[in-house]
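Quick look at the format.
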Amino acid sequence: MDNSDLKKIAEKSNSWPFVEARNLRDRLVKSNIDNQKVVLFETGYGPSGLPHIGTFGEVARTSVVQHAFQVLTGRQTKLICFSDDMDGLRKVPENVPQQTLLEKYIDHPLTSVPDPYEEFDSFGAHNNAKLQSFLDHYSFEYEFVSATDCYKNGKFDNALKAILLNYDKIKNIILPTLGKDRQKTYSPFLPVCPRSGKVLQVNITSIDTENNTVSYIDEKTRELTTVSVLGGSCKLQWKCDWAMRWFALGVDYEMAGKDLSESVILSSKILRILGGHPPTGFSYELFLDENGEKISKSKGNGLSIEEWLRYGSSESLSLFMYSNPKRAKRLFFDVIPKATDEYFSYLKKYNDQTQEQKIDNPVWHLHRGNPKKNDLPVTYTLLLNLASVCHANDPEIIWGYVSSYSPEVERSPELNLLMKLAVNYYKEKIEPYKNYRLPNEKEKQGIIELVEALSLLNEDSSSDDIQSIVFSIGKKLEYDNLRDWFKGLYETVLGQSEGPRMGSFIKLYGIKPSKLLLENVLKGNLIK
């Protein structure tokens, strides 16, 4: 398919990246922005703690919008990942070492705080490097931009002068949103104290637009102190800083979490005062931890990127970030198997879809229009339950069953990885919490019938045939809700309340081993 046909399909696509791409294109046209300009996409990150999975999600989502925009318009684009690493350390994160050391550097710029891991020049540099390593793992095409560098090398100087010239107008935008006490001391500029090195939130007593300076009373010496707003001697308050960054860098698109909706509005007002056009973007919902609380860098709750990749594939993480960005989602270990299987399900559907359906398929966006084939014979959930039954501590054990189940299958890198991840997940997230119980009388009757039925089958029987037998036994037992029959099998056979399609599981595990397993359930041999 040529580019013109693809653009026509993209114009009608309802997938959210193309909706966003059309919004951006229309804004650029409406604002009369030069169509030869490189369209700049930005993601922002505060390295006040170890980068969490939400930061990765913002880059991943922005990247798919960038690709959709390129397909739709053919225009040149660029993605920058901006680190607000000149921000002052407000509190010590709970999940890092050397807490006492870091306490001494509260309010110091993050690039002036020692690295508690003793690997980099600063805590900010450490967290920046961690983020970049994750982004590089996913082969994102981006430019990393440091706030400290931009402030100190003069890249922001012209924009900072514009902020100073519009000092009172900007204050008038922000002051009504603050409490009375904060209104008394608010200033867009935060001086970096020449004496202590701290980023100060102090009352600015006067400004000098000719010399580009601000003055304040040093709280310790009680002396009037004057500092330049240029060259890294001052930093801007958050909302003003965001607007200044858009203005200085020429940002065209940036998305943000729902919790920053008010900041987007206020920063856009400041940007208009400076003569700029607010970027396009949308408000995404937040990720929640296992208790339904917002994930936070300082708390270290939720999942880290390393934790996800220990149990799930890279693509499953990308899919989790792609899906339903305007819906709040719980981000905990138990979402990984489902996300992994959903990814391979989308991949399996892809080759049989029309072109219109393909570009609405998430894998088209995740692989920039060129997804790979899915030839896996089993799901991740099946591998997990297989590992659970045979107590696998080695992928080789699982491979023995898979190769018997599907002799023609190749041991591909994808399958190797999936088996390894399944063992990790089973050993660390399932085995410690398994809780077998004895079957009740009704379940015992059903299991006896299932054992007898399996005795009459040969190993060539299909998973559909086996599933039909399990289903018919449940119907015969007259359960009010047939789910209770399957739930009983999971709890007595697997030691958990949820499980796989039983026909597929028995076929994979083997009819004879499954029969022996069910007999052990009846004997109570699985109860520790």
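Next, a different chain entirely:
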Amino acid sequence: MDKRTIIGVIILAAILILMPYYQKLLTGETEEQLAQADTSGADTLGEADIDRTTAHPGEIYDSARAYTPELTVSADTVREETAIGVSEEAQGARDTIPEKLVYVRTKRYDIVLSSWGGDIISMVSREFLDLNGQPMEFCPSEVAGANLPLVAFEGDRFITTESLHFVTDSDSLLLTETDPTGAVTFAAMLPDGGIIQRRYHFRYEDYAFDHATLFGGEGEKAGIDESILWWRKGLEPSDPDIKGNISANYRIGYMIGGEYDDEKFGKDEKPQFSFDGTTDFVATHNKYFVVIIAPYDGVASGVRCDGVRYSAESFGDYKRQIPALGVGLVQPGGDAPVTRHDLIYIGPRDHEILKRYNRGFEKTVNLGWSWLAPLTKLFMWGFKILYSILGNYGVVIIIFSILIKLVLLPLSRKQMKSMQRMKELEPKLSELREKYKSDVKKLNEETMKLYQKEKINPLGGCLPLIPQMPVFFALFAMLRNSFALRGAPFILWITDLSQKDPYYVLPILMGVSMFIQQKISIRDPKQKMMVYFMPLLFLFLFRNMPSGLVLYWLCFNIFSLVQTLWVEFKSEKNEALTIPSDA
């Protein structure tokens, strides 16, 4: 070793020996205490403890912009004060130098960083539970390799942080409301004598953190052409319907020039994708959570996706392979010193939270067709207000169905009026059917003439269904993609309104209510088959839909049925009053 490296090792040893005492002096909590913290105890929020309306960080992106990384330190200073050299005799450092772990705690996460690669090796949620009821781990262990490596290219050569041993200035970092920000810095020497520094800056309330990288060195040794920051392992399934989650929601997304697009990969297709061009951010997501890498300022120069498929025993009976959709964001390089600064969001795929970053992150949430998205947003907003009052999303859906019924009341009245006129017209229609029973063409012509004469629209009973369709599709998009409805219970066996009814009780009740409604409403014998066909069709279509959506349709049917029976009752009463008495 040269003299400067020996001095650096001595200084590093002193820092590592004294750091636990310094940490204890500041916080009263040591590295071991943080490492052994019980994530299932009082500090951990269970799914039932989450405030679905207020669990959002305040002014997230503004606080992020207030931080400017100090990456102007010279390579000599880094080498002398914090770095350990990777000289020829120290090749394979990860195999010969013990791994050092740094423990970080925020309001949102318990995080473990490693000196091997300066990587994140664990990121456990302090709010959300996984499919097995355990605190959710965002760094899947089934996939080998680093979680957040950075790869730099110089001509035909490349450097990856995964192969480097770093030193750090921290043992642990505990953030609180009174001490809400902090950073952990890793540094290492490159084989050519240059320096690489990785700095993580965390905020207590935030789901996102800053990652800043410095390549420094003497002359042009540390110059690079470009670098790629990867999130390698994707995300594990977050929805009990694992098959549906993977087929519909496992995607990589990217925004280019303000336009968002995404890529989906078939079960036999290797998850690979590459795009070069100005990029606002890249993302990988499952149904409820998303990882986003975005340049802190400006735009990046490309997107990469390179994934694998793996089998995991932790998902019970699901035997198919799970895709790990790794994504990377490309940034241009230059001559030394080269810096890059990224904002990394790892957390809920929640439209309201993501919108606060003012970067277009909320576009990773599917709100349906573009013309439907405003209606979906309106419903999400209204549902959260009602939930803050009622405290149960099932009750909210029932109230919502009543409100929709009231909005459509004018159309419903027209429908009832049309039904009543059809009932009054039934004797004349029967006469026509008897008169032209051997001439179908003539029967149809005379029937239409009768409708025109009496000013009756035979399709009038279908009018309320037309404005119902946008409501239905918007509600479907919301129930399928709203993070607030994740695991939202209703009553008894309905423990998650975003999932299908496990016993098909609601779909059956919906089919029965629709059958009764059709039986009362349809008077034309030609439409008799519709009485049986439509309920069966809807039962089949709705059997695997979110129970919240089926609950809405069931309630709407019941309210429509009550209205129909009331109109029938009033009609019969009025008829009775108009009949002359025999007395």
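Residues 547-578 form the longest helix (32 residues).

See the schema section for token definitions.
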